[in-house]
Amino acid sequence: MPTTAADASDRNWELVWSDDFDKLDETKWTLVDTNVPTNNSQQDYLPSQASVQDGRLVLLSENISSRDLPYRSGQVISKPEWKHGRWEVRAKLPATRGMWPAIWLLPDVEKYPWPSGGEIDIMENRGNEPTLTSSAFHYGSQTPYKHDFVFDEHQARRNGELVDYTAGFHIYAAEWDERSVRYYVDGVNYFTVYDHDVNGFLSQRVTPMQLVLNTAIGGGFLPDPDDSTVWPQRFEIDWVRVYRATEHQARPALQNGGFDADGGSLAGWSTFGVDLRDNPNVVAAPGLGVDGSSALKMFGVFQGGTTYSGVAQGIDVAVGAPVRASLKTYIDAADSITGTANVVEMKIEFYRVFGGKFDSSDLVGVQKLVVADKDAENNKWRRHVLEAIAPAEAVEARVAIVFEQPALDAGAVIIDEVELTTGREPGE
């Protein structure tokens, strides 16, 4: 089982609320009872569709009509509400066309009419796409009515195969503060919404929210059920954790520098520039590492123009501290970037706030080193080292590994044994 992302990030989160579902605790949850669905979905939400079985909350979706709707399903809403923190839910998704499981945060719309208080969609899934999840942030106003949203999607691989989120339990999480919302699947930060991206809504308008767990059926997000749909379906939630941040969110050490965590994954890393649907281009690939285990494999997205793909991860740093990043590269002659315009850089970036946005005033310094280009050797592991001194205002040192594809040139680069340290030599 993957560790929780809170554990994997080694940050200081204080647990404030949780449920391991030893029973269906109605002091913690409201069991929704409504036949007024949203988003053109087609289910009647009934309290009887939510139960606890074998230590798990089960939301049961059935092909049984109810109160003028063709299907039945379950939804629960937490009675406590919070503003800022970290939410984690370990869950197994239903697995057929027409199912729309969701883990999300929503204000009490009686007090804050939607979307004036915001909405944080930690995880949504289309039942016909079991290897794909998505996350979103909705925001706007009620008077006058205005609605905007930003979103992204996520896939992952284990042992070279796409992860099927309906085949087992996975951890879906979001970290929320006045500056950003960071979305995770199994410890991979694949999407971040910054306050700047939503016109200051996070810092100025977002209200406390409740946790919502449900399975909608059909609607505007996905195809409706048809003759291929398998009934009944179960959305199983193993546990829920809600944390608040301590005064200092420490991250003293780089995580998963060998890309071997959870059987080979990008856990602990933030990703960017990933091509999901056609040819995933930033992956933990089995059998390619220095010792034959997993390693990071990177190539371009073939979208035309200059594109950037890669991973990044940061640690705490003090102003004036020496910082050292290192990694090893390997280029297979059969998939070489020799003679192409492709370039891979290792960067040390410094930020005045932890988790700062790259293309913003949060960035206070950067050092770069080309680790692979058209002249790089093939079929040989090469070690690369980059050193820097943390500038004024820096609180985070971040290593970024970036594959730059200026045209449509092919070729891939393997990365392993990434290290990022401050004030000491790697391995000491």
Task: Give a short synopsis of this structure.
This protein is mainly β. The chain has helices at residues 5-9, 201-204; strands at 13-19, 29-31, 43-45, 50-53, 56-61, 71-73, 75-78, 85-92, 99-106, 119-125, 133-141, 146-154, 157-158, 161-162, 170-176, 180-185, 188-194, 210-217, 233-245, 270-272, 282-285, 295-299, 307-316, 322-330, 343-351, 363-372, 382-389, 396-405, 412-422.
Which descriptors would you attach to this protein?
428 residues, mainly beta, 8-stranded antiparallel sheet, 7-stranded antiparallel sheet, 29 strands, disordered N terminus
Explain the layout of strands and helices.
Blueprint: H1 5-9, E1 13-19, E2 29-31, E3 43-45, E4 50-53, E5 56-61, E6 71-73, E7 75-78, E8 85-92, E9 99-106, E10 119-125, E11 133-141, E12 146-154, E13 157-158, E14 161-162, E15 170-176, E16 180-185, E17 188-194, H2 201-204, E18 210-217, E19 233-245, E20 270-272, E21 282-285, E22 295-299, E23 307-316, E24 322-330, E25 343-351, E26 363-372, E27 382-389, E28 396-405, E29 412-422
Parallel strand pairs: 3-6
Antiparallel strand pairs: 1-19, 2-7, 4-5, 5-19, 7-18, 8-15, 8-19, 9-10, 9-18, 10-11, 11-12, 13-14, 15-16, 16-17, 20-23, 21-22, 22-29, 23-28, 24-27, 24-29, 25-26, 25-28
